[in-house]
Design brief:
- The chain is α+β, with helices and mostly antiparallel strands.
- Helix content is about 25%, strand content about 40%.
- The protein has a domain of about 180 residues: Cysteine proteinases (Cathepsin B, Chain A, Alpha-Beta Complex), CATH 3.90.70.
């Protein structure tokens, strides 16, 4: 597949393999690109990963708890795509930490409700805002309103952002515009130590149509010695892209950033 030879056959083989691994991808109906990519990354990680071994018993037990009892794995997929965040729930009455955990992620789902326009930073701020949650408090001995908060402890090298547009009319093709930068995106307001690499955009997955049907396209930034700039891809067709079409794009569905 990397050479570009017989790519149609390779993609067909990938599709058939995905169907054997998960019935969701068995038929020829359109599926959610975000779901497929997330699943493929997990399959590759589980298939290629090597178990992380530690001599520290407490550290090993904590890794098992955070990984739901499964051995902790490391692969080139996790090295590239996976980040880690710290989640905590705090008593709303006395400020004590009730529970906390470390969680890995391969992408972030950013919800978009009906509005004229959002910026990507607005969506990230909304995602990492402190939230109220009803929780069984060990300190108070009863359920009451507590605070849930998450911070990034290890930003990924390749950052995948899924723009999940919520529309009550599932057949409507109207989409809220989300603006996003080409260069110097930073996650530092949402990290534990306020430190984040700067990210540059290298691809955009677009979805034309409604929540029930449509067509996927892509913009990719090519940096080869023979071709440079943004290109537009639609099935087997491709062409040079106008920069305005890349960044003023209400069909933007997934954003792909890489750390400098």
């Amino acid at each position: 597949m990397w050479t570009g030879d017989n790519i149609k056959d390779h993609l067909q083989n990938l599709k058939e393999l995905a169907g054997r691994l998960d019935d969701l991808f068995l038929d020829d109906q359109q599926k959610e690109a975000h779901d497929f990519l997330t699943q493929v990354l997990e399959w590759l990680h589980l298939d290629l990963g090597q178990e992380v071994v530690t001599s520290n018993k407490e550290e090993e037990e904590e890794m098992l708890r955070n990984n739901r009892g499964r051995p902790m794995l490391r692969s080139f997929i996790s090295e590239l795509f996976y980040g880690c965040q710290h989640n905590s729930i705090v008593c709303g009455r006395n400020g004590q930490v009730i529970c906390h955990s470390e969680e890995s992620f391969s992408n972030l789902t950013l919800y978009v409700n009906t509005k004229k326009q959002y910026s990507l930073n607005e969506l990230l701020k909304q995602y990492y805002r402190q939230q109220d949650i009803v929780w069984e408090c060990d300190y108070c001995g009863e359920e009451h309103m507590c605070l849930q908060h998450s911070v990034i402890t290890s930003p990924p090298r390749l950052l995948l952002l899924y723009i999940n547009r919520v529309n009550e009319d599932t057949k409507s093709s109207h989409k809220t515009l989300v603006t996003y930068p080409e260069c110097d995106l930073s996650l530092h307001p949402y990290t534990k130590d306020n430190h984040s690499p700067s990210y540059n955009l290298y691809a955009v997955c677009g979805h034309q149509g409604s929540m029930t049907s449509g067509h996927y396209t892509a913009f990719c930034k090519i940096k080869s010695s023979t071709s440079k700039g943004w290109y537009y891809f639609s099935d087997a067709q491709f062409s040079r892209a106008n920069t305005q079409d890349v960044f003023f794009n209400p069909d933007a569905h997934m954003l792909f950033y890489e750390a400098k």
